[in-house]
């Protein structure tokens, strides 16, 4: 009976260890990639390459649990998001300038 109890305890502990939460750096990387996608990075040519690199690094990070790949994924995703924000800001500025030019011409 003692052997069975010990085996059961080891099994339960093993299952609990297998279901540990992902490391913070991996969650951060996933969040950064999701934020870049939500910002529309896949629609902005200047940001698409950085988003692809972020996804690639995230896949490697998940497969190897390598924090350096997680950091790379986060950095590339942040770059993609910032490039997206810049492109959208430039487009909005151009629209405002065009509107101002049109109003002045009236």
Which helices and strands appear, and what pairs or packs with what?
Layout: H1 2-18, H2 24-39, H3 45-64, H4 67-105
Report on the structure:
There is one protein chain. The chain has 106 residues and is mainly alpha-helical. Helix content is 87%, strand content 0%. The protein has helices at residues 2-18, 24-39, 45-64, 67-105. The protein is elongated and about 85 Å long.
Considering the chains and any ligands shown, give keywords for the structure.
106 residues
Instruction: For the record, give the distance between the C-alpha atoms at the N and C termini, rounded to a whole number.
Output: 94 Å
Supply Rg: 23 Å
SSE sequence, one letter per element: HHHH
Strand tally, please? 0
Low-confidence stretches: none
Mean pLDDT: 89
Largest sheet: none
Number of domains: 1
Derived structural class: mainly alpha
Shape summary: elongated
Number of helices: 4
Beta-strand content bin: under 5%
